[in-house]
Amino acid sequence: MISPTKLKASYCLRLANGQGWNIVATEEVKLWVEKLASIMELNTCKADGYPKLVFVQREPSKGEFENPIDRLDQSTQGNIPKDGWRVHRLGVLRLWYHDHVQDVICETEPDKNHDLDIIRMWHATHPIYQRAQKLGGLPFHAALIERNGKGILLAGHGGAGKSTCCQYLPHSWHVLCDDETLVVLNDQKEYFAHPFPTWSDYLWKRSERTWNVQQNLPLSAIFFLKQADTDEAVPIGQGEAAIFINQLAMDICQRNWRGLEQVEERALRKKLFDHACELGKAVPAYKLKISLKGRFWEEIEAALEC
User: Fold this and answer.
1) pLDDT single digits (tens) 107-150
2) What is the DSSP string of 146-195?
3) Range(s) of the domain holding residue 13
């Protein structure tokens, strides 16, 4: 059993809907979790009653479905039950869930392969997204930008122009992220957006950029990007917006649904679509036609002033 002194890393993650995580790690994965926390700009903290996301090193000698509870020290175990855990294999990670506790245990295998480490970190955001979805939120394939305190999503599949648009914005705009955003819903039925890392930058560009994932903005509008000859923001209806939202949320969610039972995946798909419909009703949405040399941000500004 791991001694209490080996629980070295502990970080806080707080979301605008009141949800939070204490991210902790054992000695064996301390440096890996420190890197993850650095990318997400998380601060160290002590356990404060929020659910734990516990990272441990996977032991190849252990059985495929043998849960890792007995490898945690007593202070981490707390009231975590020994039995009743179910595993979700997610590529190079194994996530352990329990129906009666909110804590999640993540087995990982840090090594010297940079790309595999980043892919593991990418997948490790799944429990965060999953819990936000239970309260009406969803992850989004979108850039998050800000002007005058308003959060705006530039949404689109890969290659739609999200990063390019972010690069062309004038200095009066602030780019929080250019690829992946978590939208959360609070108790007052207000939507807020959190920036999340562009993990592909770490894979292909060897970027050292970081993202403050705890920073959040009230979500004011969603613009779905479409390349065109001229710039124009065209309002769209709630139904069309819901379809686009669902598609771009699926971009993020599907990578984490591999290996699920069909019944469970169908339930998640339905819930995701329901949340997309609610978001489409609550937040104004537009098709944003963007040209190579235009001033698309002026179209956004005009739409926000209407």
Assistant:
1) 988 777 888 888 899 999 999 999 999 999 999 999 999 999 99
2) EETTEEEEEE-STTSSHHHHHHH--TTSEEEESSEEEEEE-TTS-EEEEE
3) 4-124
